[in-house]
Amino acid sequence: MDYVIMTDTSANLSRETILHWQLPVVPFTLCMDGKELPAPCHSDFNARTFYDGMRAGKAVTTSQINTRQFMDYMEPHLLQGKDVLYIGMSSGISGSFHCAEQAAEEMRSVYPGRKIMTVDTLGASLGEGLLVLKALTWQRDGCGIEEVASRLNALRHRMYQVFTVDDLRYLHRGGRLSGTATLLGTALGIKPILVGDSAGRIVSDGKCRGRKKSIEMLAERYDQLVSEPENQTIGIAHGDCVEDAEYLCSLLRRHRPPREIMTVMYEPVTGCHVGPGTLALFFYGSDGVRVESR
């Protein structure tokens, strides 16, 4: 098909996947200990070193992708006479998607004969990446750019994203938890359950005591809400907690086993905001499976 699908590093896709699909990936910017660098465009970075650095107290910040960067990634394909479909990180989490829309608008004025489309996945990590893979499959099967965008805009509302964190400090640093709640929750061993709402924002949707119970709650959500798991590739992303991810896999296979489980280490730009020990689950449910925005 005469169009290019592109995404960003938040999609958390592996090097092999990116190379197989020849997928252009726009990098977020990462700053660790004052050193600024583009985020790795695949999940095969040195995660142990990165998360150990966070555990040791190294400061990590991120910058959104700006309009100029998006234009620089779009224009070479437009010059080749191809249309562009950008599938990006939730606008409820980052301002990058707005910059992508601005870039698309600017490029349309320069290349009026080309279609330049953007899709807000309302997700991050594999909540974004699994939708990108759907789009690539539909493109391979002959779907045009407008049909793929339309399908994604419908399917994104069925993507259920649920996760728990092991260290509440990172939610506090991100402004999602007060200092008092952080101290009290840490003392009592409280683990929050967080989900992506219908506007693509991260909201609290439960809590429990203890790490094991929090992992079991993720599996319970899956058992309750997954739709046709035998036909699905579902996703698990974790912040350097391999054994917990394996335990979650075993729970998911008990009652309603999926066709496939894709497990990745959280890429650094999302991972630095949720912290080491974060464990996330991504799967498709029915229409309206996401909690309503508040």
Notes on the structure:
This protein is of the alpha/beta class and 294 residues long. The chain folds into 2 domains: 3-157, Rossmann fold, CATH 3.40.50.10170; 158-284, Hypothetical Protein Tm841, Chain: A,domain 3. It is 41% helix and 24% strand. It has 11 helices and 13 strands. The protein has helices at 15-21, 47-55, 67-79, 96-110, 126-140, 145-155, 169-173, 179-188, 211-225, 242-255, 268-274; strands at 3-8, 25-26, 29-32, 35-38, 60-63, 83-88, 116-120, 159-164, 190-196, 202-209, 233-238, 260-265, 279-284. The strands form 3 sheets. Strands 10-9-8-13-11-12 form a 6-stranded mixed beta sheet, with helices on both faces. Strands 2-1-6-7 form a 4-stranded parallel beta sheet, sandwiched between helices. It has a 3-stranded antiparallel beta sheet with strand order 4-3-5, with helices on one face. Strand 3 (29-32) and strand 4 form a beta hairpin. The longest helix is centred in the middle third of the chain and has 15 residues, at 96-110. The termini are far apart. 42% of the residues are buried.
